[in-house]
């Protein structure tokens, strides 16, 4: 038997886990190896000393003191409990907040002047002034962003003015569709939502 195996057997023997056959092998090795024998005697004395020490009984209130010293469990906030109880409403609310934030950001960042529509051939653009001339007919919807609009002729569609100004219609003016003036982020949001769902309805 090698010495390293003998050391393992020594500890197993002191713990009471060594089989009878292995005990015979250990005794044979100890009788032939003075170094392992000395080590075994040292381990045996240490084990005996530990076993002879008095066992101290823990105080009766030790468990209570330990539990008291632990950090208290934080109670979940009321809103988190509400979110868990109403997942569908919470998801819809989060969607609306994200959507509103996105559109407000877009509205704040969209400060450039622009004119859009299917028929701009007869529309006069002077700086940030958009004019539908008298005696001219513009077909389709007309959208003006960050500009002033003056209608003197005919507009066969809707007129939408975003963050701009619409001059009162002249007596010669005629607009076949709706007139929308959008000056605030909330209005911009609802305009985008209605346009989005209107597109879906039109596409279906």
Automatic annotation (TrEMBL):
<dbReference type="InterPro" id="IPR027383">
    <property type="entry name" value="Znf_put"/>
</dbReference>
<dbReference type="Pfam" id="PF13490">
    <property type="entry name" value="zf-HC2"/>
</dbReference>
<feature type="transmembrane region" description="Helical">
    <location>
        <begin position="88"/>
        <end position="107"/>
    </location>
</feature>
<protein>
    <recommendedName>
        <fullName>Anti-sigma-W factor RsiW</fullName>
    </recommendedName>
</protein>
<keyword id="KW-1133">Transmembrane helix</keyword>
<comment type="similarity">
    <text>Belongs to the zinc-associated anti-sigma factor (ZAS) superfamily. Anti-sigma-W factor family.</text>
</comment>
<dbReference type="InterPro" id="IPR041916">
    <property type="entry name" value="Anti_sigma_zinc_sf"/>
</dbReference>
<keyword id="KW-0472">Membrane</keyword>
<feature type="domain" description="Putative zinc-finger">
    <location>
        <begin position="3"/>
        <end position="36"/>
    </location>
</feature>
<keyword id="KW-0812">Transmembrane</keyword>
């Amino acid at each position: 038997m090698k010495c390293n195996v003998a050391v393992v057997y020594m500890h197993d023997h002191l713990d009471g886990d060594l089989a009878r056959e292995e005990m015979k092998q250990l005794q044979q090795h100890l009788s032939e190896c003075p170094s392992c024998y000395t080590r075994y005697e040292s381990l045996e004395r240490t084990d005996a000393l530990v076993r002879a020490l008095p066992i101290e009984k823990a105080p009766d209130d030790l468990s209570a003191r330990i539990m008291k010293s632990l950090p208290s469990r934080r109670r979940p906030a009321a809103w988190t409990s509400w979110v868990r109880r109403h997942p569908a409403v919470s998801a819809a609310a989060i969607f609306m907040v994200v959507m509103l934030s996105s559109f407000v950001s877009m509205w704040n960042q969209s400060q450039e002047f622009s004119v859009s529509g299917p028929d701009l051939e007869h529309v006069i653009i002077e700086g940030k002034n958009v004019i539908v001339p008298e005696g001219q007919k513009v077909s389709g919807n007309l959208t003006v962003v960050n500009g002033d609009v003056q209608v003197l002729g005919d507009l066969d569609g809707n007129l939408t003015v975003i963050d701009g100004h619409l001059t009162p219609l002249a007596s010669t003016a005629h607009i076949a569709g709706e007139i929308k003036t959008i000056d605030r982020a909330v209005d911009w949001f609802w305009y985008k939502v209605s346009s989005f769902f209107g597109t879906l309805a039109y596409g279906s």
